[in-house]
Design a protein that fits this description.
This protein is α/β, with parallel strands linked by helices. The termini are far apart. Helix content is about 45%, strand content about 15%.
């Protein structure tokens, strides 16, 4: 009888705890993602990740005894829409923190609004311009375009390549990538012997690639873009019979790219987060447990392949939650300060160490160089 009574009391206490968490004012996580449109294969896994982990955290009692509430909008890959939704999240929804901004364009359209409102914002987009110069309330989880260019050039140098052709997209990510690639080329002894561009909605890059093919001395091609464009360019590359080493930026780091590009992607290399090769990481790698855990949970829940973009959303949410816990409240200034003080956070993208001068907190070691072999990712040693 005593045992039963104890069990009943314990059960009641648990139920009361759960009810208290439900009754408490929710912590509002705002999010603007490109779930539809050209950047959908980035935004879709980001939203799925946020939904999955907000539910998971709430099942475990929430944060500071309060449930999380995800308030999200789909900007349709349109930066102007992102700006409108940011105003709504700030003024009407009154969110406590913002996780999102799938693309650089969307992020940069939102940045001035969050700065003015004093709202902590963790972007999921790639360009270095997001965090350089440092903006007080803006942070980001993915590796930058500059880091991608450096990692690619590092690998090219090992292969004795010094003359490179660049094909970049005219989107925010591609434009910034072009600028950063040009900026670090000399540091790695690289000469850009050709530079062509394409639009995000272009369906054929053969003319640009034909020009590149005819450029004297070119030793490798580097494509800087995201979404479907790079997959089309990869197919065109194969159709034109170009046999030079092909590199991509981290904007294509998902299984979706391999599916879209098909056999044409074989042998292509790109820098990406450890997440894509979670099971192939060394057992001693500190990221292994986090990457494998996230990949397993995502694939079991959604019955689809994991992508680094979903991983960026996981890191964004967990960094926000961690900062709220350390701040001991949702006071925006305190959460901002806690984010900036993040040290040793192990995420899917790397080990994060933020500071007043670094609102991303990743170094070049956070990138792995991958090659597509037999339709799968493999680590380049």
């Amino acid at each position: 009888m005593k045992h039963t009574l104890k069990t009943l009391v314990a059960g009641a206490a648990l139920a009361l705890g759960a009810l208290t968490a439900q009754a408490a004012e929710p912590i509002k996580i705002g999010s603007i993602l490109s779930v539809t449109g050209p950047a959908a294969f980035l935004g879709d896994p980001e939203l799925k990740t946020l939904q999955m982990y907000v539910d998971d955290i709430n099942k475990k009692g929430g944060v500071l005894g309060r449930p999380l509430q995800l308030v999200h909008y789909d900007d349709g890959s349109d930066a102007n829409k992102a700006n409108g939704f940011a105003k709504r999240l700030i003024e009407d929804d009154k969110v406590d923190v913002l996780v999102g901004g799938t693309t650089t364009g969307a992020t940069m359209s939102v940045a001035p609004l969050v700065e003015k409102a004093g709202l902590p914002f963790i972007s999921l987009a790639g360009a270095v311009v997001i965090v350089e110069p440092v903006k007080k309330f803006v942070f980001k989880t993915p590796h930058t375009d500059r880091m991608a260019a450096e990692k690619v050039f590092e690998d090219m140098k090992k292969r004795g390549i010094s003359k490179v052709a660049l094909l970049s997209e005219t989107s925010g990510f591609g434009q910034s990538g072009k600028k950063e690639t040009e900026g670090v080329a000399a540091k790695y002894g690289m000469t850009l012997v050709a530079s062509e561009t394409y639009g995000p909605k272009d369906t054929d890059m053969s003319p640009q690639l034909t020009k590149i093919k005819g450029t004297p001395g070119v030793q490798a091609v580097f494509i800087f873009g995201l979404g479907q464009g790079p997959a089309i360019a990869t197919k065109n590359y194969k159709q034109l019979g170009i046999t030079l080493p092909l590199y991509h930026a981290h904007g294509v780091a998902s299984e979706e790219f391999i599916k879209l590009a098909g056999p044409a992607a074989e042998g292509a290399r790109l820098p990406a987060a450890a997440l894509l090769v979670a099971n192939k990481l060394d057992a001693k790698d500190p990221q292994k447990a986090v990457a494998v855990g996230y990949a397993k949970a995502f694939e079991e829940k959604w019955k689809t392949d994991v992508s680094t973009f979903g991983g960026h959303a996981y890191d964004g949410l967990m960094l926000a939650v961690d900062a709220i816990k350390r701040a001991g409240s949702t006071d925006k200034a305190k959460v901002r300060d806690a984010l900036e003080a993040t040290k040793g956070y192990i995420g899917t993208g790397g080990i994060v160490n933020m500071s007043a001068t670094d609102h991303m907190g990743l170094d070049l070691s956070a990138f792995k160089m991958l090659e597509i072999k037999n339709g799968d990712w493999s680590l380049v040693q």
